[in-house]
Design goal:
Blueprint lengths: L2 E11 L22 E14 L2 E2 L4 E8 L8 E8 L4 H11 L5 H6 L3 E10 L1 E4 L5 E4 L3 E7 L9 E3 L8 E13 L2 E4 L2 E10 L12
Parallel strand pairs: 5-6
Antiparallel strand pairs: 1-2, 1-13, 2-3, 2-4, 4-5, 7-8, 8-9, 9-11, 10-11, 11-12, 11-13
Length: about 210
């Protein structure tokens, strides 16, 4: 089977600024703990798994990283927007759980426990203060960082980046899903494009 999804994402986690997971550094939270609890919301502007059209589907990926990413033993759960059709939700789960190969297939080697898929409202909004909300589970707000020239502060070419370049943000809010509870501190956003046929040398997506 072949698949591709592209659109934009918002991510928030418990790490202090700046989260080191994208460069395989050991996580660090405000209390001195060495784990990362976080979530990523994806809006699929265009996407497909074989004949299943995924355009317009929103979903959220929740994570617990107990150490640096390549140490493995991740816990991962998925929430697909309740407005998506059942076949769309099933296709998203097959892609993100790694069963269809490609980007997510590569990172599935680090999964220690897959926590399954749930359905709830998933919403990503842009603007001066972007917001990521998952009904009854998460509500995070973001304040993108800017440099002295007023342009966004970005990171490029990270080993586990969701995109070749992403914008750094402060994050606030609370999340509690799959038993993974955290207060958001760090955030990021960017456009993304993943597929079953990743170009050679492309960075892995950070789940």
């Amino acid at each position: 089977m072949t698949w591709s999804i592209s659109g934009n994402y918002l991510a928030g986690c418990s790490c202090v600024m700046v989260c080191g997971c994208a460069v395989d550094a050991k996580p660090r939270d405000a209390q001195g703990g060495e784990q990362c609890l976080g979530m990523v919301g994806f809006h699929v502007a265009e996407g497909r798994l074989d004949e299943v059209d995924l355009s317009g589907v929103d979903f959220a990926l929740y994570n617990h990283f107990p150490s640096n990413l390549t140490s493995g033993d991740w816990k991962v759960g998925i929430v697909v927007d309740e407005g998506a059709k059942d076949e769309q939700a099933a296709a998203v789960e097959r892609i993100v759980s790694g069963r269809e190969g490609g980007t997510f297939g590569e990172i599935a080697q680090f999964f220690g426990e897959y926590l399954g898929m749930e359905r709830a409202s998933v919403s990503l909004t842009n603007g001066d203060k972007p917001r990521l909300a998952v009904g009854g589970k998460s509500d995070l707000e973001f304040e993108p960082l800017t440099g002295a020239d007023g342009n966004p502060t970005t990171v490029k070419n990270a080993m586990f980046g969701f995109a070749p370049e992403f914008v750094l943000s402060r994050a606030s809010g609370r999340s509690d899903a799959f038993g993974l509870s955290f207060d958001a501190v760090y955030g990021e956003k960017a456009d993304f494009a993943f597929s079953s046929e990743q170009p050679e040398g492309a960075p892995a997506g950070r789940a």
